[in-house]
Amino acid sequence: MQSRTHTCGELRLSDAGKKVKLCGWLENFREVGAELGFVVIRDFYGTTQVVAENADMVKQFKAITKESTISVEGVVRERSSKNPKQETGDIEVVPEKVEILGRCRYSELPFEINHSREADETARLKYRYLDLRNPEVKKNIILRSQIIAALRSSMLDHGFMEITTPILTASSPEGARDYLVPARKHPGKFYALPQAPQQFKQLLMVSGIDRYFQIAPCFRDEDARGDRSPGEFYQLDMEMAFASQEDVFAVIEDVLPPIFAKYGTYNRASGAPFVRIPYLEALEKYGTDKPDLRIDLTVSDVTDLLRTPDFAPFADGVIKAVVISDFHESRKFIDKTMEAVEVQSGNKGYWFRVDENGELVGGISKFVAPKKDEVVKALSLESNTLVVLSAGDKGAAVKTAGVLVKTFGAAVPGHMDKEQYAFCWIVDFPMYEIGEESGELEFCHNPFSMPSGGLDILLKAEKGEVDPLTIMADQYDLVVNGVELSSGAVRNHDPEIMIKAFELVRLGEEDVKKKFPAMYNAFCYGAPPHAGIAPGVDRMIMLLAAEESIREIIPFPMNKNAQDVMMGAPSFVTDKQLEELHIKTTATEEE
C-alpha cells in the first residue's frame, strides 16, 4: 500500500486499537464545535469517519477544501453511534496527523460528487473525472471491468485464442461512415479506423487459426442513440473455423447466461437452448425482429376479419391486433399510452374494449360491433379485455404493432416479467430484398453470409426457377430483452458462391475483386467453412447494469454530438499539421 496501511473501506471492529494511515479525498467535514468535528474520507474502496477532538485538529480540517486528497494518521476505535449503512460504520479514526497530498483549489465544485447523476449531462461529461468519484457512477466502471474479465476468461476456457487486429486499415465500401486517417507518407491517401474486425477475423480463419476472439474496438461515424455511443464501441468478436450455426450457438449459450446471472441486476437468465424465431415469424408475431420475450403479448393479423369501407383506415392495407387480457385501466391511461405509441412509431393506433358485461365499448368499437361474434371468437376475447390495433401498408402496420406490444406490455400490470434476461435467436433472414430507393434486388443484410442452399439455390434463382426473395441466409441475430445484442453468420467462404451471390444484384467478379481484394484472393487459396458473431460489450453492460443510457457504462463517453467536451475533441489543428498531411480544409476556427 506504500503510503497507507489500509484503504478507506477496509477497517472493521477487529482493528480497534491499531494505529493506521489512510489516504483519500476529503468528502465532507462537519464542525460541531471549536473542539469537535467529523470528517468523511473516501477512496476507491469506501469511506471512513475521522473524528477531530481538539481545536488544533478541527482548525486543520476546516482549512482543507472539499475533494482535496489527504492522508490521515491515527488510532482506530469503536464508534459509540454506529452506522449500519456504512461498511466501516462500526469504527472511526481519531487523527494524530493530517497532511494535504493534493489540494483542491476550488471552493465551489461543478456539482456535488455524491449527487453527480442529478447534474446536467454536459457538466458531468466535462468533469468526468469528478463524476467518476461518485461511488454510484464508479460502480458501473467496476462492473464493466469484471464483465470483460469474465468474458475473456470464458472464451479462453472454450479454446479461443485472443488476437488483436489492426486499427489502421482500408476504408470499407459497405456499412456506416468510416473515420478516416490521413497517411502522411502517402499524399492523398487515407487509412480508416475499422468499423469491425470482420475481414481480418475471416482472414485469420484462412490463415489456419481455429478459434479467434478479442474485445474489439470498433469505430463508426454514426449518430448517438440511447443504446449506441457515437464514434467508438466494443464488441466480443469471435470466429470459428470448420463451424456451423449450431457451433456458434453452443458457445454463446454457454458463455453468456452465467455472466448475465452473476453480474446482472436481475439474477435470472435464459438457459440453453435459447428460443429460435425465424425472422419473418418474428415480424408477424411480435411486430419486430427484436422481440422482448419478457412480454406475453403477441400480434394477430386481422386484415380479412376487420376490413370495412365504413372506417377509412381499415378500408385497405393491413390490419394488426394485439389482445390485452385482464385490463382494468382508465380511458385516460389508454389515451396517454396511445400517444406514446404514435410518437415512437410515427403512426396512429386504434383500440376498443370488451367490458365486464362482454360488450364492445370505446375507441372504434362501433365499426367493429357489426362483426362482434366473429371478432370475439377469432381473437378468443373475454370480459375486461383491451384490443389495440394498427393499420396501413404492411411495413407501417407491422412496425406500429411492435410498438403497441412493447409499450402496452410494459405499462399494463401483469404482462411483463421484467426481472430476468430473456434471450432469443432470430434466424432465417432473407438473403435479398427489393431496395426502397432502387426498386431492384439488393442484399437484405450481410452480403457475405452463406445462402441456405449454397450454389445450387443461386443457380436456380439465376434460371428463374426460384424467386430470389425466398432465398434465406445462414445469418442470425442475438436478442435479449428487446435489444439486439449481436448479428452473426455462417460466412460465404467459397469464391464461386460469392460471385454468384453478387451477380444476382448486378455486381460481377471484377466488382468483388476490386471492393474486397484481400478476402477474395485469400478464399481462392482454400478457405475453411467458418462462422462467427460479435455481441456488443457496451450494450451488454448497459443491460446488466439496468441503465437507460449507454454513456453511464463508458469511462469517458462522448456526448450525443460525438464531442468529447472534457478533452475538447474534435478540435482544429495547426496549418503546419495540415500541410504535412497534404490536406486543405474549407472550415475555419472562427466558424
TrEMBL record:
Keyword check for Glycosyltransferase: no
Query: One GO biological process from the UniProt record?
Result: aspartyl-tRNA aminoacylation
Which InterPro entries does the protein's record reference? Aa-tRNA-synt_II, aa-tRNA-synth_II, aa-tRNA-synth_II/BPL/LPL, Asp-tRNA-ligase_1, Asp-tRNA-ligase_1_N, Asp/Asn-tRNA-synth_IIb, AspRS_core, GAD-like_sf
Top-rank lineage group of the source organism: Bacteria
The record's PROSITE patterns line, in alphabetical order, gives: AA_TRNA_LIGASE_II
Binding annotation for ATP? R220, D221, E222, E484, G536, V537, D538, R539
Oligomeric and partner information: Homodimer.
Identification of the protein by name: Aspartate--tRNA ligase
Identify the species of origin. Answer: Butyrivibrio fibrisolvens DSM 3071
Provide the organism lineage as a comma list.
Bacteria, Bacillati, Bacillota, Clostridia, Lachnospirales
| UniProt gene name | aspS
